[in-house]
Amino acid sequence: MDLQWFADEKTEKATPKKRQDSRKKGQIPKSQDVNTALMLFVAFIILWLFAGPAIFSGLQGMMLDSLSRFLHMDVTTPNIASLFRTLTWNMAILVLPLMAITVLAGAFGSFLQVGSLFTTDPLKLKLEKLDPIKGAKRIFSARALVELAKSILKIVFVGAAVIIVLYMNIEDVLLLSQKNIEVSAVTVGELALMMGIVAAILLLILAIPDYLYQRYDHEKQIRMSKKDIRDEHKTSEGDPKIRARRKQKQLEMSMARLAQDVPKADVIITNPTHFAVALKYDQAKADAPYVLAKGMDYAAERIKKIAREHHIPMVENVWLARTMYANLQVNDQVNEEMFEAVAEVLAYVYQLNGHT
Hints:
It is found in: Cell membrane. By secondary structure, the protein is mainly alpha-helical.
């Protein structure tokens, strides 16, 4: 029982295949705080530098139009519907560009963390998520405590941003009561934007350790046991017994082919120990000598044994044997680099056999 527990304990780093499978399922290290902070930062920067005055002017126009035109209209269903349609359309024109840029910033934050990835697996219904026992475990888990700590830090950071901006502009705040409504509105808007930018920067700083924690937690979640690694290896590479039988079958087929092809050779070229190449020259089939069979170590010894049994000449030529073994496959013709050496070997064999 103890040995089984150790075998099932998740102590090993995830294999590349495990990581790839997890990524396909959408199980990736990602901090949502990075996206949120980046979206807030971009939104407030755009408001501060470009969109703020345009949106403020647009809101002024909407308010003026509402008070000057719609205020004198009768309260009827068509008039109210027209009012809401007009206000909704005008508001959409004002904020849609800003919202589009903000969404792009969030997408860019996701791309920075996970790269290009599209999967629908996280959207699938999983009944285990409805398990109340597992839900209770998630509530009282270390991850829940981390999320609680993050929430508290966010409140502290946003509060700090408000205090910092108010403290640095305390004189303008105290003089608000002495300014007209338009100037006060501009001042409040500027202060709100500064608070937003400072808060976004602080949240970005907080998002860095959160991303590091998410990576650590992800690595912990995808850890594997020694048994998992063995099972994956068996699945990927096949059962060792089956692989052994497959190799044995391949060896038997190779040896059978050698027994069939080597007796047809004109000569066996050896190096003399490790390599053996069987050559055949048949003008009816090819313009140059071609390889009937080749082998290294055990296969080379098998070729030489078959050659001795069928009285096929064997010629020792270290360079030629190694070169042909490395550069030619079965049925390949010898190339120009080997012509001279092969011609000398064949001439010697033909002379030995009494051919003219």
